[in-house]
What we know:
The structure holds two protein chains of two kinds.
Chain A: H1 2-40, H2 46-50, E1 53-54, E2 59-60, H3 63-94, H4 99-112, H5 116-130, H6 137-161, H7 165-173, H8 178-206, H9 235-244, H10 251-282
Antiparallel strand pairs in A: 1-2
Chain B: H1 2-6, H2 8-30, H3 33-38, E1 42-43, E2 50-51, H4 54-85, H5 88-103, H6 106-124, H7 133-157, H8 161-169, H9 174-185, H10 187-203, H11 206-211, H12 229-236, H13 245-280
Antiparallel strand pairs in B: 1-2
Helix pairs in contact in B: 2-13, 4-7, 4-10, 5-7, 6-7, 7-10, 8-9, 10-13, 12-13
Amino acid sequence: MNRIKRARTVQTVAVAITGAAAAFIIAAALFLFVYIVVRGAPAISWEFLTDVPRKQMKEGGILPAIVGTLALTLGTAAFALPIGVAAGIYLSEYAPRGRSTRLIRLAISNMAGVPSIVYGLFGLALFVILLDLGKSILAGALTLACLTLPVIITATEEALRQIPSDLRQASLALGATRWRTIYRIVLPAAAPGIVTGSILGLSRAAGETAPILFTAAVYYKRQMPDSVFADVMVLPYHIFILATQVTGRPDDIIWGTALVLVGGVTAISVAAATWRSIQRRKVRW
Amino acid sequence: MIRLNGWSAIVILAAIGIFLAYGGARALGEVGFWTLVTGSEWYPTIAAPRFGFVPLLIGSAAVTITAIFLSMPVSLAAAVFISEFANKRFKEVAKSIIEFMAAVPSVVYGLIGIAVVVPWVKEAFNLDSGLNAMSGAIVLAFMIAPTIVSISEDALHAVPNDLRQGSLALGNTRWQTTYKVVLPSASSGVLAAVMLGMGRAIGETMAVLMLTGNAARIPGSLFESVRTITGTIAAEMGNVVQGGLHQSVLFTLGLVLFAITFLINLVADLVLEKQRRRWRR
C-alpha cells in the first residue's frame, strides 16, 4: 500500500515539475511577443512606415528597409521555389528507394543545420566575388535561397506524401502519363501544403541577418533600389546597426523596427497556416 | 531535369565546402592549418598579425556548453509534459507558441538580450559589464529551446502506444511508464535533439555578437567577455581587404565552423534515422 501511495506522490510531483517547465517556456515565448509589441507600438505611425531615416537614423522612418526586405524575400522565392518544389516532387514521386535517395535526404537535413553565417561566407565567395554580382539584391537573394531550400523541399515532399495514392492510380488508369498526373492531379491537391510550408520558410529568411551581412545589406541608403544589382537596407540589419553602432540609441525606432519585422513575419505565417487548415477542411480524402 | 533538382542539396552542400576551402586556400598555404587552430592569440589587424583560433574556439565552446546546460533540463521536461501528460488542446497551443519562438529572428533575440538580460546579469552577479559569455548563453538557451523541445517531443511521440499500455497494465503509474519505458525507448532521439540544439547554438551569430562583448582573448570565467567563431566572422569580414590574408583566414575559420556543425548534424541525423526505422517495421 505504501509503495503505491509513494508512486502516486512521485507521479504528482513529476507532472508538476514537467508542467512548470512547459509553462516556463510558453511564458518566455509570450513575454517575447508582448515585450516587442509594448515597446514597439508607440513608434508605429504612418510616417514611420513611409519615411526615410533622418538625422543619422535617429528620426524618420524605415521605408527603405521595408522595401529592401520585401525585394530580398521575393528574390529568394524566385530562386528557391522552382528548385525546391522540383526537388520535393523528385523525392516524393520519382526517387528510387535506395542509397542515393538516402544520401539526398541526409544532405537536405544537414543543409538545414548549416549556420547562417556559413551561408553568408559561401554567398560572398561564390555570388559576390566569383560571379562578380557585388553586394546586391541578386547576390543576397541567391544566398538566402540556398538557406531556404531545405525547408521548401521538405514542405513540398510532405505535402505530396499526404495525397492518397488512389488519386494517382485513378489518373494513371485513365491513361494520363506520370508527369501529367503529377502536374494536373497531385500538385494542385498538394498546393496548400506546399505554399504554406514555403511561406513559413521564406518568412524565416526575411528575418535573417548573418547571410546578408556581406552579400546584400547596407548601413544607410536613402534611395529605393532601382535594379537587382543595387544593395539595400533591410529590417534585421537595421535593427542590428541601431542597437550596436548608432550612438545615443533611438530606442523607439529600434523597437518599432523590431515590431514591424516580427509582426510582419508572424502575421504572414499565421495567415498562411490558417489558409492551409481551411483548405484542408474543404477537401477530405 | 527534375532529377537534377533532386540532387541540389548535395551539390550545394559540396559547393559550400569547396568555396570555403577555396577562400581559405591562401591562409592554409601561408599560415598553415595547424598554426591556425592551435594559435592562442588573435590579433588580426596589427603590423605582424597573429591568427590563432584558440580564443575563438574557447569562446564558442563556453557559450554553447553553458547554453546547453541551461536549456536542456527545462526543454526536456517541457517535451515530456507536452508529449506524455498534456491534453490535446494544450499540446496544440503549446506547439504553435513554441513555433513562434523559433521564428523570432536572431537580431530580435539579441535586442531583447541587450534590453533585459544584460542589465540583469550585470546586477545579479555584481559585474562592471553585462556583456559576457553568461548573457550570450542565457539568450542562446531560449533560442535553442524550440529545437530541443520539438525534436525530443517528436521522439517521445514516436514511441508506440503498445509499450505505454503494456506498462500501465502492469500497474505502473504514468510517470513510472514515462521514466522507465518511454524515455529509455526514445533516448537516442532525445540525444539527437540535444545535439541539433548544440549545432544551432554553435552556429548562432547575431544574438551572440550583440551580447558577449567580443573580446578575443581566452576568458578566465563565464563572466568575462568572449568572442565566438561566428561573431568574429560577422564582425571582421566587412572590414578586410579583398583577397587579403585576413579575409582568407576568416574563410578558414568558416570552414572549421562548417566542419564542426556538419559532423554534429550528420551524427544527429543518423541517430534519428536509425530510431525512425526501429519503430516503422
